[in-house]
UniProtKB/TrEMBL annotation:
Residues 145-237, 239-310 form the FANCL UBC-like domain. GO terms for biological process: interstrand cross-link repair; protein monoubiquitination. Pfam families: FANCL_d2, FANCL_d3. GO terms for molecular function: ubiquitin protein ligase activity. This is Uncharacterized protein. One of its GO terms (cellular component) is Fanconi anaemia nuclear complex.
């Protein structure tokens, strides 16, 4: 009975918080908690003028007492928005709305209304020397469907995989683990284009997956499918990673100076003024595709002969190890 009462009271205490977050997400398509324990929230507040031109203002709010009590809250606005308010003589308007707002959602709505009234009828604002206010058209938000697709994909792969997201949505970084627990990063650039670019520290490239939505012909980047491809590639390359790890851990690697999984070649020290260059095939890392000895012929001749005598036990022929 006590447990039931405790659960009921806990759920009741969460209802106001969930209501605030729900109203907040209706105002801002992308509004995320940056630090849950410190109650720091950030996102882009959409701004629509009478001319139906859409812009965005980045807003960060730190609420020490939580989103239901804005006492001692700190607010950070985009510089262009602060300059705009200053030019309109409304420097203290945001602070006044913060003091009278009952919760975070109400405050964000007040800020949105304030900025929309400031730029209403002024879709193109002339820049002023030393106190510039950007043209609203330069702050265009992505298609609303972009937010829905991106949030759904992040939910599918797990928000914990998100490492970084640019404020202009031009690039993002996610991470994944291979079978052995190594962490690999995937950087996606030009998110808003129909052909985003994937940057990975791997010996083979990764192409981004883009799909058209069912309700229109627009093509959007599919993070979930691209991430699945990335995960499959990592699993396939796990033996390759293990071979390179062994070289880096148990040999003296001369080149590359800072070994990564991008370079499938290792030059290792055999003896003073003697070295060996080994090319590892990412597809079949246990087969020696190319081995080259470097040093004076007098010093390396014996090493090379002994190596070729034993190539049969390594699963390759002298022709392979050349």
């Amino acid at each position: 009975m006590r447990n039931h009462v405790a659960k009921t009271s806990a759920s009741c205490s969460l209802e106001p918080y969930m209501d605030v977050m729900q109203r907040l997400n209706q105002i801002c398509p992308v509004w995320l908690p940056e630090e849950l324990e410190a109650f720091t929230f950030a996102g882009f507040v959409p701004i629509t003028t009478c001319a139906r031109e859409v812009g965005a203002c980045f807003l960060r709010v730190h609420c020490p007492r939580g989103p239901l009590d804005l006492g001692d809250a700190l607010v950070l606005l985009d510089a262009w928005a602060e300059n705009l308010l200053q030019q309109r003589g409304l420097e203290n308007a945001v602070q006044k709305r913060l003091e009278r707002a009952h919760d975070l959602a109400e405050f964000v709505a007040e800020v949105r209304d304030l900025l929309e009234r400031c730029v209403d009828g002024r879709a193109t604002i002339q820049h002023r020397t030393g106190n510039e206010v950007p043209n609203l058209t330069r702050l265009a938000l992505p298609d609303p469907a972009f937010y829905r697709v991106l949030c759904a994909d992040l939910t599918a792969i797990g928000w914990s995989c998100l490492r970084h997201l640019e404020m202009d949505f031009q690039a993002m970084t996610v991470e994944a683990r291979d079978r052995s627990g190594r962490v690999h990063e995937l950087l996606i650039r030009d998110l808003l284009s129909e052909r985003p670019t994937c940057v990975v520290a791997l010996p083979r490239p990764l192409e981004a997956v883009c799909r058209p939505l069912s309700d229109n012909d627009r093509v959007f980047f599919s993070l979930s499918e691209t991430y699945d491809r990335f995960q499959i590639m990592l699993d396939e390359l796990d033996p390759f990673f293990r071979v390179l790890d062994d070289f880096d851990r148990y040999t003296w690697v001369l080149e590359p100076e800072h070994p990564t999984y991008v370079q499938p070649t290792r030059r290792i020290t055999l003896a003073p003024q003697c070295s060996l260059v080994v090319d590892i095939d990412p597809v079949d890392p246990f087969r020696l595709t190319s081995v080259r000895f470097f040093g004076s012929e007098q010093r390396i001749e014996g090493m090379r002969n002994r190596f070729y005598e034993r190539t049969g036990t390594l699963g390759c022929s002298p022709q392979d190890a050349s």
